[in-house]
Write a structure and sequence with these properties.
Chain lengths: 285, 419
């Protein structure tokens, strides 16, 4: 055993400790992450006539539909904002979260063929998804800004304020929660395929428990508490408040703090679970 | 000599049948069974439970240990199911061993397939970067080798076309070009060589030996004995998850042929019960070298013959005995008959020998037929297996490969005319 004291670059053992996460590997593979981002982003609109315009068409059609159904027919409150602007503010934020969650939750199953052939830190895939969705978000956000500016100059009740500079923080928390929940689900789906079906409509239902199509201020008492238990609520609300000025009465730093803590917990749980699963998932998937 | 890979007592268990339960409800059942003190119907494999389930576990690798020195080109061979692929998966970190550790010094890259992660919508250029990064290269590294990769692949013209428009050959060439320019200290290679046309294969083989000459460590897992023989200095023979033999390549390959084909050179021909009523019948077939020694596996190029023992129960006129050889795909390779003859009652043996035709490596089936005036006396298919191995005994540089080039290896006569 003359080699006992030599330095090994890599030691693979069947059982590793829960916290051996090798996150530095992720940094070493940062080029791969960026190439995945490019792939995800470019391949989506290849061979389409409208190309990246689709990223804008989808939210605007959704916002118009919501305006007709929830705004005009169901007459839900839009907190005094123009319907289009109100729904668009909710959809823009919500889309980012739901896309992150939906896509990362498929990581293992969708990439089984690559994962089965070559090793690279598996976490690169969900992280790349989070980043490429950020670009989608930017497209949709600029649409939102355009509509916002239009109303800002044609009306007097739109009051953008300093809270809009919280946007990067809101996105960070949202991305973190999306990533955390997504990788927890993707880790579990390697064993339980049931979850795939659950997640598809689960995300849809969760939207109705988030103030996307109605303002938080329209809810009272227990219903409001229930909504606030949803960590996404304060993110959507803060976004809307920062850019349009409505809903300031319901803003508390504590709510954002809650979302942030939630993010930290799901991220840690997610990364640990993901790390456990990535070692042996090829045998079960 | 520096040890760059150390495999220590590695085992890998797979549970036979369905792995994992797959649904939550069944896991809940298992859990309920457990708290009621019954045996879990879908136990996972681990140290504690193995005892109970020993009958249902397949040990793909069983306590394997070996060291690889720096600069070694090590071939890992074995039959299907011997554990080669599992070894490969563990070495490339696609899965983890159930027991044991594996240690590596230096950067390790594995090629279980070429073109992993190629995206059909992306151009050749984008895919070079993507694939390179998946294999562990930094962007800067790929950039500096880009021109080389492009030249090696030979698809310069189409580099900005999405790879979904590529022919499969172009696709593979591009993929291999990226892989060939990986420069890790340790390279693990699966049988990716079996792709592309011959010219390209030779190019790949050239690249591989070039890599090994640069002093890098290569682990090569293959069925292709010829390739192993050409590339590797040392080898490991796996059998049923254990190391059967390790040492010099030629010895390892010999051992492989000895063990893997529980070899037979002598075949009984199954007969009906009423042989007394038959005019005559063949009962034994032997494959042998030209000196008459039984030989179960024939190196390509070695001369061989088939000897058939038969008995005639009565005098027969216009008697013909013939054999047919077909390959495993049931392609009839050749059929040959004796000339018609008058034959007396008695015991006979007949030898079929051809010293001209070079059959390519592979397995062939033999059938026999005995007739008289086009009336069948005996006809039996699949009575023997003729194995032409990939070890060759030919020294003809016109023969590039000994399998996969068609059934007959004999070069044609060629004439070069200058105008």
């Amino acid at each position: 055993m003359e080699n006992n004291y030599e330095e090994w670059t890599l030691v693979v053992k069947p059982n590793t400790k829960w916290f051996e996460l090798h996150l530095s590997d992720l940094w070493r593979y940062r080029d791969l992450i960026m190439l995945f981002v490019k792939r995800d982003f470019v391949s989506v609109y290849k061979q389409t006539i409208l190309g990246p315009l689709w990223y804008i068409i989808q939210p605007i059609l959704t916002a118009i539909t919501y305006s007709i159904i929830f705004g005009s027919m169901a007459q839900l409150s839009t907190a005094g904002l123009p319907k289009l602007l109100f729904y668009l503010s909710g959809i823009t934020m919500w889309n980012y979260f739901s896309e992150c969650l939906n896509k990362t939750s498929n990581t293992f199953i969708q990439n089984a063929h690559i994962f089965g052939k070559v090793y690279f830190p598996r976490l690169t895939v969900p992280v790349a998804i989070i980043i490429s969705n950020l670009f989608t978000f930017l497209f949709q956000f600029s649409l939102f800004l355009t509509i916002l500016l239009f109303y800002y100059f044609t009306r007097t009740d739109i009051h953008p304020n300093k809270f809009m500079f919280l946007l990067p923080v809101l996105l960070l928390i949202m991305a973190g929660i999306g990533l955390g929940l997504g990788i927890i689900i993707s880790s579990l789906t390697t064993k339980y395929r049931d979850l795939r079906f659950l997640i598809a409509f689960g995300v849809q239902l969760l939207m109705f428990a988030t103030p996307v199509i109605y303002p938080l201020s329209s809810m009272l008492g227990k219903k409001k508490l229930l909504l606030l238990a949803n960590p996404i609520t304060s993110l959507v609300e803060t976004f809307r408040m920062g850019f349009t000025g409505v809903g300031g009465d319901d803003f508390k730093w504590g709510y954002l703090g809650y979302s942030f803590s939630f993010m930290v917990i799901v991220l840690i749980l997610g990364v640990i679970l993901f790390n456990k699963v990535e070692k042996s998932f090829m045998d079960t998937v | 000599m520096k040890t760059v890979i150390r495999i220590e007592n590695i085992s890998k268990d797979y549970r036979l049948g369905e792995v994992g339960t797959g649904t939550i409800s069944r896991d809940i059942n298992a859990w309920l069974a457990k708290i009621r003190g019954k045996e879990n119907p879908n136990l996972k494999i681990n140290e504690k439970t193995k005892f109970f389930l020993s009958g249902e576990i397949h040990k793909a690798l069983d306590n394997v240990s070996f060291d690889v020195q720096e600069g070694d080109v090590l071939g890992i061979i074995g039959k299907n199911g011997a554990g080669k692929s599992t070894m490969l998966k563990i070495l490339s970190r696609v899965t983890t061993p159930t027991e044991g550790t594996f240690k590596v010094k230096g950067r390790i890259a594995s090629l279980l397939e070429v073109g992993t992660g190629f995206h059909p919508e992306l151009t050749g250029r984008d895919n070079i970067f993507l694939n390179g990064a998946i294999l562990g290269m930094r962007k800067q590294e790929i950039k500096s080798k880009f021109d080389e990769i492009l030249e090696f692949s030979g698809v310069e013209k189409f580099i900005d076309t999405p790879v979904k428009r590529y022919s499969s050959g172009m696709y593979v060439r591009l993929a291999f070009a990226v892989a060939a320019h990986l420069e890790p200290e340790i390279l693990i290679i699966d049988e990716v060589l079996a792709v592309g046309d011959i010219a390209f294969q030779n190019k790949c083989m050239g690249k591989m030996s070039e890599v090994s000459k640069q002093g890098r460590t290569v682990l090569f897992v293959s069925h292709n004995m010829a390739a192993v023989q050409r590339l590797c200095k040392t080898g490991i023979l796996l059998e049923d998850g254990k190391i059967k033999y390790s040492g010099e390549t030629t010895k390892v390959i010999e051992e492989y042929f000895k063990s893997s084909f529980a070899s037979r050179a002598v075949f009984d021909i199954s007969l009906p019960e009423n042989t007394q009523d038959m005019e005559g019948f063949a009962y034994l077939l032997q494959i042998e070298d030209l000196d008459g020694n039984p030989i179960s596996t024939i190196p390509v190029g070695k001369k061989w013959q088939v000897r058939i023992y038969f008995r005639m129960n009565k005098r027969t006129s216009h008697f013909i005995i013939g054999i047919g050889i077909s390959n495993t795909m049931d392609v009839n390779f050749r059929t040959t008959w004796s000339s018609p003859m008058e034959i007396e009652k008695g015991e006979y043996e007949v030898v079929f020998r051809d010293t001209n035709i070079l059959m390519s490596a592979g397995e062939y089936k033999i059938l026999i037929g005995l007739t008289s005036f086009q009336r069948s006396i005996q006809y039996a298919e699949n009575i023997a297996v003729l194995r032409i191995s990939e070890i060759d005994e030919i020294n003809d540089e016109r023969i590039l490969r000994i399998s996969g080039n068609g059934l007959v290896l004999n070069p044609m006569e060629m004439e070069l005319i200058k105008k």
